[in-house]
Specification:
A 5-stranded mixed β-sheet has the order 1-2-3-5-4, with helices on one face. Helix 4 runs antiparallel to helix 5, helix 10 runs antiparallel to helix 11 and helix 17 runs antiparallel to helix 18. It is α+β, with helices and mostly antiparallel strands.
Length: about 575
């Protein structure tokens, strides 16, 4: 039986990890630290081509250590940059292949992978570099397999790539083409052809010692065994593949192997092992798609687009400036003729209008991408806080409670000198766990709303600090959506923590005031203050406050003098919020 399309489509993402095998051969002996030091020396000596190659090696080292991660893609982009500085077109476009192949790990990044591979293919076709053209074709074929239905000419393209690999003596590409043919025939429900090409690829990849390809060939042979209802043989093939994929740190492939292993165990009635394999698959799924590494790579591509638009804007401004100079020179020559002067004025006005429109469009696009990047970052932070809070509450909190119950049940067996300190320590641990969990995701905020959550925060801080905290609110405070409530709560929490930590204040006052157009939030203290005009605000906390308020469309302002305390005023527009609710001071 052939498995559903979405399983096979996800499996195809794992086939790219070994495409960097040539880099591995030259980088195994170099550690990450030594490579970084080597890069610094090469940059100082302006040996840009060597810097580019060193970054390639560094990217592979990161991949071997962390799997699919942002540090590897950062290294490859740096390699791309220094190949450009070295004016090495071959290395520059070869790095496009590397980046394109790496992006195919993540289904959501495959459109970008297609872009990089096609750009490289266009260059190598112009320069008649057939081995590289074959690599590009195989990379694009790997992406094409994820489409439903499969392109009609995909088999023909892969057979042609296999033939060209033999013609140009590219054994590595030949083995990879056979591997892709095996998977394509599996999806087309032709197990005999899939078995034939997987076996051929396995023989060739074993001789070449390409571990990732060996693992993938065993995987496809296992699919063929499962198609023929030979579940035990399929499990053996999956286990051989799993062992190799584990050494390669290939999380995506480990995920798919665990899923298929669970399916095979369930077919033979071994539900215990099927359940364990399913748990592994869920764990690998979480590691890959929910990890900060994967999110960071996606955000990095958005940042790359922002930078590209900024460069294009700069080029447009330079071109516009050059055009204005040219128009000025033409104006001097055409002043003799009235008609010529009139035509020149009209032309210049049109060009300025177009240039202005292009600049406005570019600025809008940059702003939109910045908002997407900011939103993704904030969602990632809050999601991670919620996950850690759940883990503390449902995991550590439950375990501590179980320990406390166990101690209480057996307290007669414990001496008094041990029993009382032990109970005290357990109570303190439970309390601390609840406080940390509530700080990460306050229960009052999600249950009762912003004002009760802030009152709860102030009350708790008053219990553990000598500084007196006061909360006051006036007017009809608007009802906020969950996103705005969380952001405002985090901002006030950060401001209170900063004041408690640095201000040395006697009293800190939080005030919320609402009008028909604006909601004002102020946090004032009577502490030591500072000269913010001559001393720039620094730190991630201040940056987070500014970014969150900017996202809500508001403004934040600091006022402070040495010895006279600090006042932070936040202004938020009402149109970002929902219908108002009544509240009293």
């Amino acid at each position: 039986m052939i498995l559903p399309f979405w399983w096979i489509a996800a499996l195809l993402l794992v086939g790219v990890s070994g495409r960097f095998q040539p880099v591995k051969a030259v980088s195994e002996s170099a550690s990450i630290d030594s490579l970084k030091n080597q890069i610094k020396r090469q940059v100082n000596d302006k040996k840009y081509e060597q810097v580019a190659k060193s970054y390639e090696q560094l990217g592979w080292q990161y991949h071997q250590r962390y799997g699919y991660n942002k540090y590897t893609i950062d290294s490859y982009f740096n390699s791309l940059k220094y190949y450009s500085l070295a004016d090495d077109s071959l290395g520059y476009y070869n790095e496009h292949i590397v980046i394109g192949d790496y992006y195919t790990h993540d289904y959501f990044m495959q459109p970008y992978a297609d872009k990089y591979l096609r750009k490289a293919q266009s260059y190598f076709e112009r320069t008649h570099n057939m081995p590289k053209v074959i690599e590009c074709r195989l990379g694009l074929a790997n992406i094409a397999q994820n489409k439903n239905p499969i392109p009609r000419n995909l088999i023909t393209q892969l057979r042609e790539a296999e033939r060209l690999s033999v013609q140009y003596k590219q054994a590595y590409s030949q083995a990879y083409a056979q591997n892709l043919l095996a998977n394509t025939y599996s999806r087309l429900k032709q197990p005999d052809s899939a078995d034939y090409f997987a076996s051929k690829s396995l023989v060739l990849s074993t001789r070449l010692k390409i571990n990732w390809l060996i693992a993938l060939d065993h995987f496809y042979l296992g699919l063929v065994k499962q198609f023929r209802d030979q579940s035990k043989e399929a499990i053996e093939a999956y286990q051989r593949s799993f062992k190799i994929a584990r050494t390669e740190n290939n999380i995506a492939m480990l995920r798919e192997l665990s899923r298929h292993t669970a399916d095979s165990y369930s077919r033979i009635g071994d539900y215990k092992n099927a359940y364990e394999a399913s748990l592994k698959a869920l764990d690998f799924e979480h590691q890959f798609y929910s990890s900060e590494q994967t999110k960071s790579i996606r955000l990095q591509e958005l940042d790359s687009q922002i930078k590209t638009l900024a460069v294009e804007k700069q080029l447009a401004e330079q071109q516009s400036q050059h055009q204005r100079v040219l128009n000025s020179m033409l104006a001097v020559g055409l002043l003799i003729s009235v008609l010529g002067v009139g035509a020149l004025i009209y032309l210049r006005r049109q060009q300025k209008l177009i240039a202005h429109q292009q600049t406005v469009i570019a600025q809008q696009q940059i702003r939109q991408l910045e908002l997407k990047s900011l939103r993704a970052m904030i969602e990632g932070q809050e999601g991670e806080r919620s996950r850690i809070a759940r883990d503390l509450h449902d995991g550590l909190g439950i375990q501590l409670s179980r320990i406390k119950l166990f101690v209480e049940a057996h307290q007669e067996q414990l001496p008094l000198s041990v029993k009382e300190p032990l109970n005290q320590f357990l109570d303190e641990a439970c309390t601390e766990t609840r406080l940390i969990s509530n700080d990460l995701r306050p229960y009052a905020l999600s249950t009762f709303g912003l004002i009760p959550a802030l009152e709860d925060l102030v009350q708790k801080l008053n219990l553990v600090n000598q500084t007196k905290l006061v909360l006051e609110h006036y007017g009809e405070v608007p009802a906020l959506d969950d996103e705005a409530s969380v952001m405002i709560y985090r901002v006030v929490q950060e401001l209170l923590n900063n004041a408690l930590k640095h201000a040395s204040a006697q009293t800190i006052t939080v005030q919320l005031m609402a009008s028909d157009e604006t909601t004002l939030i102020s946090v004032d203290d009577d502490g030591q203050g500072g000269d913010f005009e001559n001393t720039p605000l620094k730190g991630n906390g201040i940056a987070n406050i500014k970014s969150r308020i900017a996202y809500l469309g508001g403004q934040v302002m600091w006022q402070s003098e040495p010895g006279k305390g600090t006042s932070v005023m936040i202004s938020l527009p009402v149109h970002r919020q929902a219908q108002p609710i009544l509240s009293s001071a």
